[in-house]
Design goal:
This protein is mainly alpha-helical and 928 residues long. The chain folds into five domains: 4-205, P-loop containing nucleotide triphosphate hydrolases (Rossmann fold, 3-Layer(aba) Sandwich); 209-263, no CATH class; 408-558 and 576-613, Serine Threonine Protein Phosphatase 5, Tetratricopeptide repeat (Alpha Horseshoe), CATH 1.25.40; 634-642 and 667-842, Serine Threonine Protein Phosphatase 5, Tetratricopeptide repeat (Alpha Horseshoe); 852-924, Orthogonal Bundle (Arc Repressor Mutant, subunit A), CATH 1.10.10. Helices cover 61% and strands 4% of the residues. Strands 2-3-4-1-5 form a five-stranded parallel sheet, sandwiched between helices. β3, α7 (157-168) and β4 (174-180) form a beta-alpha-beta unit. α34 (660-677) runs antiparallel to α35 and α39 (766-782) packs antiparallel against α40 (786-803). The longest helix has 18 residues, at 92-109. The two termini are 53 Å apart.
Length: 928
């Protein structure tokens, strides 16, 4: 290729050769690409802009997105041309020659003759001629689009100035689409101010979770479970090249989950890419800055200056950070401000801007041999710790002190802030920190010892925590630590289902309540309230909850507030006040938002309870989204009720979708966890639910076997009158009644139901009473007394409507659903319309798995009353793959309402009564 000197001021003779043709030829699209619908729609709809700037670091899919936009524009009749820039285009003459060739390409595509460039013209004359040609170039409505890729190669100010002149002169409807790793330093301000600039930023180019799944599962054909896909999406942060490299590695690995769990920027393919395509092309000063600051999870100019000053380096971090941001070098702003010109908002005397490195880039930097070595690393961490401490930010100050191995600095900081950390529910953080202290390092810190017990309680479970608690001598501790010991003892015994011991501990302890220490006082009062509630003493439970709230009144103890609000919501749910319970759970779930260290344990507890209540009101998709996030945390949380309800609700949602295997898998996980944690109630609950599902499948033998195993007295050892929250509805007695009804008409079973119903009402177990009333209606129907069955169900539906209960009826199978649908029809307008619709939707006639697989009177493909539209076919395929309405809406870039409309149309055309049957019929017809 000719040099700049050879082409300056004239058209190079070889510009029509292979080199120029290669620059004008767009790259061949990858067969594995994912359609970037949102970006394409944004760019193609932006007729009002003159410049579209697609900017992102290397490997973020800029070129792919631009190719898709070009194809979309061409399909709409807009003439386009493509030009890939390189360093040789820093010469004005060469750059003009490239642009002239690109415009000629568009002219030929439009059937116009190629324009002639007179020899010997100056660059200015050629530029003016090019501007004149642009004015008459466009297709219909004067529109055209010129795509310039790799703009970061252009460094010459004369070339960039020429480009901005061309942009300013673009006729209405024409636009320039620019792909670049860098943010141009000049030329954007006026365009942005006039609304003539559209910026596609790195955040928009990152794959969404749905796009990552589409790439890995559909485009690449990898058989990955949803959890593995989500994990890889989080680790790559939607970086397209990282997903590609990971997918190549996954093709050769029989155990993808293990690879994904350890995937980082140190993996060979990622590291080689970052080293060769990014790092080695940076100036030496920038490389040194990156290696020095790699120890930081978040960066600002003053913090970076502090680290560099400790190493005797210059304090010019603000300039380097500004350069890195303009270069889009995997530097992610932690605030939304940006200067009008596109650079960092560095206002003299103003607050410092904060950034972080892309997680894979950070891993790569920390693994570089030239990074701060073992002798320098502690000094860097200590410098960061000291800086954060002076800024009143104890969490990163402690983090860096521990990373430096300086417990002498970390432990006093931790002692001074441990009360706040406990109140905030930062149990995982405390567990990690305190677990990193060398053996015996906490011996002189009794308050930190007790904090470790709290942390272990909610991360490793009550058994490990109670062993640590027993090693603390409360008699040798100050009163505050004694208060913590008392609260912990009661709570841990309760978490382990040792209710009688917990009650004895609180009764025999002579210390008064409150003891004058807000956190342990509130936890103890709330734990005692839970115990009172499982004994059925709701008045005492609510009195204790009021005391718990009073103990932390006026403080920021969000963990205590969540705990007390959640327990009162459980009491409301048990007593049939679903709407009040939902309100309390929503308040608790929103009290403490997730932080960068992950969801807090308090948040997990509240969100699990909210999911259970949402499921009860038939908001299954919202419940499932919460459970998929928080059930894994519940296993560490250690509260048996939340572990049970989370697994069972997920099993029921899966079963309702026709995924019986997945439902039984959730139950198997619950049973295994019960054996592992020595919590037999988890095992019993899994067996009871397994029996219920077996009855719905018509397998009475399997249901009887599960019930017999669940009735083992070794599984449930507690005194009579104690009913846990997770088992206030489902227990052995109710399971036996359900089995008796399945075995045929049984007046004795109906009479037993009546006795259980009276006992539930006496104990104020109104949710259980509702379930028994449903079974009573089923019993009358089994005996052939349709009138009494309808009367019983009508009364039940009327109460359910006041609170929004749906699943308590729908989960009882075909007979209960038919009676409930009849009750809704009989009630007419006396029921709230929204509730009636939800109940009817949940009670649509269900079919067994065998019936769904071989539906009666299924239409043939040719006999469909109306063929499925292309969009309905896409929805049907997503439905068959198990996607929720929300996930389908995200993938198809439509609203949930549109998805529901498509699903209704599909069911009508296939003559299907539910989602499972629709998929079965579609498979039979060859539509899938």
């Amino acid at each position: 290729m000719a040099s700049s000197e050879e082409t300056s001021g004239r058209t190079a003779p070889d510009r029509s050769g292979a080199a120029l043709l290669a620059k004008l030829r767009p790259p061949v699209p990858s067969p594995y690409q994912v359609q970037r619908e949102r970006i394409c729609e944004s760019v193609c709809a932006a007729d009002f802009v003159k410049l579209v700037l697609v900017r992102a670091p290397a490997g973020f899919g800029k070129t792919t997105a631009m190719l898709q936009c070009r194809a979309r524009l061409e399909a709409g009749g807009v003439p386009t041309a493509w030009l890939t820039l390189d360093r040789a285009d820093n010469d004005v003459g060469r750059f003009l020659a490239s642009l002239e060739a690109a415009f000629d390409q568009m002219r030929r595509a439009a059937g116009r003759p190629r324009a002639r460039t007179a020899a010997g013209r100056s660059a200015g004359e050629r530029a003016l001629a090019l501007i004149d040609r642009m004015a008459g170039l466009g297709g219909k409505d004067g529109r055209f689009a010129l795509f310039l890729d790799d703009f970061e190669a252009i460094q010459d100010p004369a070339v960039t100035d020429l480009l901005w002149q061309l942009v300013e002169a673009l006729p209405h409807g024409a636009r320039l689409v620019l792909g670049s790793r860098w943010v141009p330093q000049r030329g954007l301000g006026r365009l942005r101010a006039r609304g003539e600039l559209l910026e596609i930023e790195p955040a928009e180019l990152r794959f969404t979770a749905a796009e990552s799944a589409a790439f890995l599962v559909r485009a690449r054909g990898l058989a990955l479970p949803a959890a593995a896909v989500n994990s890889l999406h989080r680790r790559t942060e939607g970086w397209a090249t990282a997903l590609w490299l990971a997918s190549v590695a996954l093709e050769r690995r029989p155990h993808p989950e293990a690879f994904i769990a350890g995937f980082s920027g140190t993996d060979a393919a990622i590291a080689d890419y970052l080293l060769e395509d990014v790092f080695l092309h940076l100036p030496q000063a920038v490389r040194g800055f990156l290696l020095r600051t790699a120890v930081l999870d978040e960066l600002s100019a003053p913090l970076c200056d502090a680290l560099r000053a400790a190493a005797g380096e210059a304090r010019d971090s603000a300039e380097i950070l500004a350069w890195l941001e303009r270069a889009n070098l995997f530097l992610i702003p932690l605030d939304g401000a940006r200067e009008a010109a596109g650079g960092p908002a560095a206002v003299a005397g103003g607050p410092a801007r904060w950034y972080r490195y892309h997680s894979l880039f950070s891993d790569f930097l920390r693994a570089q041999p030239a990074a701060a070595g073992p002798d320098q690393l502690p000094a860097m961490h200590l410098a960061a710790s000291q800086w954060f401490a002076t800024q009143g930010r104890p969490v990163p100050a402690i983090e860096h002190a521990l990373a430096a191995g300086d417990s002498g600095r970390a432990l006093p900081l931790l002692r001074d802030n441990v009360d706040d950390l406990l109140a905030q529910g930062r149990m995982r953080l405390l567990a990690r920190w305190l677990g990193s202290v060398p053996a015996g390092g906490l011996a002189a810190w009794p308050k930190l010892q007790i904090a470790q017990v709290w942390a272990v309680s909610f991360t490793r479970g009550p058994s490990d925590a109670i062993a640590l608690l027993q090693a603390i001598d409360p008699g040798a501790c100050e009163p505050e630590v004694q208060a913590h010991v008392r609260a912990l003892r009661h709570m841990l015994l309760h978490m382990m289902d040792r209710f009688d011991e917990a009650r004895a501990a609180s009764r025999d302890d002579p210390l008064p309540l409150p003891m004058g220490y807000p956190f342990p006082d509130s936890i103890l009062a709330t734990s005692m309230a839970r115990l009172a509630a499982v004994r059925g003493d709701y008045r005492e439970a609510r009195r204790l909850l009021a005391l718990a709230r009073q103990a932390v009144h006026g403080s920021d103890s969000n963990f205590n507030k969540i705990f007390s609000e959640s327990v009162e919501g459980l009491i409301d749910l048990r007593q049939g006040r679903l709407q009040q319970a939902l309100a309390r759970f929503r308040v608790a779930a929103s009290t403490m938002l997730p932080n960068r260290y992950g969801p807090t344990n308090g948040n997990a507890m509240a969100c699990l309870l909210l999911a259970e209540a949402l499921y009860e009101s038939n908001h299954c998709e919202r419940a499932e989204r919460l459970l998929n996030v928080y059930v894994p945390l519940a296993r560490d949380l250690g509260l048996p009720d939340q572990i049970i309800s989370g697994h069972i609700v997920l099993a029921r949602i899966a079963f309702e979708r026709g995924e019986a295997d997945q439902a039984y898998q959730w139950l198997a996980g619950l049973e295994h966890l019960g054996h592992h944690r020595s919590l037999p109630r988890l095992v019993q609950s899994a067996l009871l639910e397994r029996g219920r599902l077996a009855l719905l499948q018509g397998n009475r033998h399997a249901a009887a076997d599960a019930l017999q195993r669940a009735s083992d007295p070794d599984l449930w050892k507690t005194r009579a009158g104690v009913t846990s929250f997770a088992n206030d509805v489902e227990n052995v007695a109710l399971a036996q009644l359900r089995l008796d009804l399945a075995n045929g008409p049984a007046p004795a079973a109906r009479e037993a139901i009546t006795r259980e119903l009276a006992a539930a009402r006496r104990g104020e177990l109104m949710r259980r009473a509702l379930k028994l009333r449903v079974l009573q209606a089923v019993a009358w129907e089994r005996e052939g007394d349709e009138a009494r069955a309808r009367e019983a169900m009508a009364e039940t539906v009327r109460f359910c409507a006041t609170e929004g209960f749906v699943r308590i009826v729908a989960d009882e199978g075909a007979v209960a659903r038919r009676l409930a649908a009849q009750a809704v029809q009989d009630a007419g307008d006396t029921l709230p319309a929204a509730y009636a619709q939800r109940l009817l939707q949940a009670c649509a006639p269900e079919r067994s798995a065998e019936q769904a697989a071989a539906p009666q009177a299924a239409p043939t493909r040719a006999a469909l009353p109306e063929p499925l539209t292309p969009k309905e076919e896409k929805v049907l395929h997503l439905l068959a793959e198990g996607f929720s309405n929300v996930a389908m809406a995200e993938r198809l870039f439509v609203s949930e309402t549109t998805v529901r409309t498509h699903l209704r149309n599909i069911s009508a055309k296939l003559r299907a009564s539910n989602r499972t049957q629709a998929v079965a019929i579609a498979r039979q017809l060859g539509l899938l």
